[in-house]
Amino acid sequence: MGTLFTKPCFREGLFGTMHTACRKFLRWKISRSEFAIQSPRPPDRARPGKMEEPEMQLKVKKVTDKFTESMYILANEPSVALYRLQEHVRRSLPELAQHKANMQSWEEQSQGAIYTVEYACSAIKNMKDSSVYFKSIEGMLRHASAMKDRLNSTRR
């Protein structure tokens, strides 16, 4: 029964041939176990290994089917979930890696733009602060111009 935990096969029905093999094995095992439902007839009239009452056969079939299905689900549900998770990761990982690379590129471009804007803002602030010096220079130039005019007028 080592094949019970292999990759699920969805080609033949919901769970494929593994389910059929598991079901047959469990029916065989239960019918020969101490839990097998025996016919209520006296031992002299009952045939070993066979049940003649259709109602009893139906009950046994239902119990066996439910038990088989439960065993199969318990045995394979984690592997099916992990298989589907693996498939999802395999399909979505390249796309996520591309998104990550794009985001890193955009982050680098954004950092460059932020640096440029901050540098421009500091340059504008420094220009605004330098207006005091320009006013002082303008005043000195006017004073120098006035002194020059005075010197020119006294020379004449």
UniProtKB/TrEMBL annotation:
Cell compartment(s), UniProt: Lysosome membrane
Cellular component terms (Gene Ontology): BORC complex; lysosomal membrane
Xref: Pfam families: BORCS8
InterPro entries, alphabetized: BORCS8
This protein's record includes keyword Membrane: yes
Record carries keyword Membrane: yes
Keyword set, alphabetical order: Lysosome, Membrane
Family statement drawn from the similarity comment of this UniProt entry: Belongs to the BORCS8 family.
PANTHER family on file: BLOC-1-RELATED COMPLEX SUBUNIT 8 (PTHR21146:SF0), MEF2B PROTEIN (PTHR21146)
Protein name: BLOC-1 related complex subunit 8
Organism: Varanus komodoensis (Komodo dragon)
